[in-house]
Amino acid sequence: MKKFELVEALKENGFSEMPIEGTVHRACVGGVILQRTWSQEIEVAWYGKHTETYTVRVFVNQPRGVCEVTYMKNGITYKARWYDTIGKRTYNAVVETARCAGYEF
């Protein structure tokens, strides 16, 4: 049985590797940042149609087996969470959070 690979699974679902910025993430040898952005037109009262963006950014520290997931709506972080594993359970949590926000993988 093949071990689940979080980085592979995210890339297969439209996530792109991003350059590592910031001293905390850059200090991690073997770390990778993956990101995906969705957008949709929504109707806003008294304003009309508006394009809403939803971004999920995942920093994976592969040597330690942990990751940080940041969820942003219209460029503003509304949720960030550290996961102590980079397995299937973490992947499912990311998928479910995006689904609850109205976006599909």
- Number of helical segments with 4 or more residues: 3
Class per helix and strand makeup: alpha+beta
Proportion in β-strands: 35-45%
Task: Tell me the strand order in the biggest sheet.
Answer: 1-2-3-4-5
Order of helices and strands: HEHEEEEH
Task: Outline the low-pLDDT stretches.
Answer: none
Head-to-tail CA distance between termini: 24 Å
Radius of gyration: 15 Å
Please outline the major beta sheet. Answer: 5 strands, antiparallel
Question: What proportion of the residues is helical, as a percent range?
Answer: 10-25%
Mean pLDDT: 90
Q: Shape from CA axes?
A: elongated
What is the tally of beta strands? 5
Task: Describe it.
By secondary structure, the chain is of the alpha+beta class. The chain is built from three helices and five strands. A five-stranded antiparallel sheet has the order 1-2-3-4-5, with helices on one face. The two termini are 24 Å apart. The mean pLDDT is 90.
Helix and strand arrangement:
Elements: H1 6-12, E1 16-18, H2 23-26, E2 31-44, E3 48-61, E4 66-73, E5 76-83, H3 88-100
Antiparallel strand pairs: 1-2, 2-3, 3-4, 4-5
Question: What is this entry, summarized?
Answer:
23% of the residues lie in helices and 45% in strands.
Tag the structure with descriptive keywords:
5-stranded antiparallel sheet; single chain; 23% helix; 3 helices; 105 residues
